Amino acid sequence: MRSLLLAVATVVLTACYGASGSGAPCGGAQQAAARAFLPDSGINAGDTLLVIFIQHDTQELSELTIWHLWPSPAGTIDPAPDPRGRLVAEDGRVLLDSVGSRYNQPENRYNRPTWYVFTWIRDASLRNAVYQGLRDQTLWIELWRVGAQSPGTRVRLRTESAGISPTAICL
């Protein structure tokens, strides 16, 4: 058993650092998660939103998702229309502005029980602004009825985690 563990450790170290110390840097990606607890009035009153930010590589590709956590039992459908969701920085910059969707990609159908907002981020300055806002808890979520002139609900996000993955040298 000890020799098996030693062999596995050798393979892992070789894969991460290379037998000759060569390889490419990996890791160093930003990630964060936050929640918004919606007030008892407004759009999706009393519900919870989960915001997930993941940087997939240390270049540009990141994703941002706002999930409406539908509190009803499985099989029930959220009857409210999908809102326009905006992520707004403390200084007023709008970092995300998109309409919620119930699209289920694996099934290629619009059959999710409630909405979510998803976007890819390919711009470093936008990626960093989203991450820093989540890290520093300076972002707001706004939910608008589609076509409305002002938000129906505006709540500050409460960050649950934010960090940067460790860096290593990988093959």
Please tally the β strands and state the result: 11
Integer average pLDDT: 84
Form type:
globular
Written as H for each helix and E for each strand, in order along the chain, the element string is: HEEEEEEEHEEEE
The secondary structure category is: alpha+beta
- Spans of at least 5 consecutive residues whose pLDDT stays below 50 are 1-20
End-to-end Cα distance, whole Å, is 27 Å
Q: In order across it, which strands form the biggest sheet?
A: 7-4-3-2-10
Explain what you see:
There is one protein chain. The radius of gyration is 20 Å and the shape is globular. The protein contains 2 helices and 11 strands; from the N terminus they run αβββββββαββββ. Helices cover 17% and strands 38% of the residues. 22% of the residues are buried. It is of the alpha+beta class. It has helices at 2-17, 124-136; strands at 24-26, 30-37, 48-55, 62-69, 84-89, 94-99, 116-121, 139-144, 153-156, 158-164, 168-170. Strands 7-4-3-2-10 form a 5-stranded antiparallel β-sheet, with helices on one face. The protein has a 4-stranded antiparallel β-sheet with strand order 6-5-8-9. A two-stranded antiparallel sheet has the order 1-11. A hairpin with a 4-residue loop joins strand 5 (84-89) and strand 6.
How are the secondary structure elements laid out?
Elements: H1 2-17, E1 24-26, E2 30-37, E3 48-55, E4 62-69, E5 84-89, E6 94-99, E7 116-121, H2 124-136, E8 139-144, E9 153-156, E10 158-164, E11 168-170
Antiparallel strand pairs: 1-11, 2-3, 2-10, 3-4, 4-7, 5-6, 5-8, 8-9
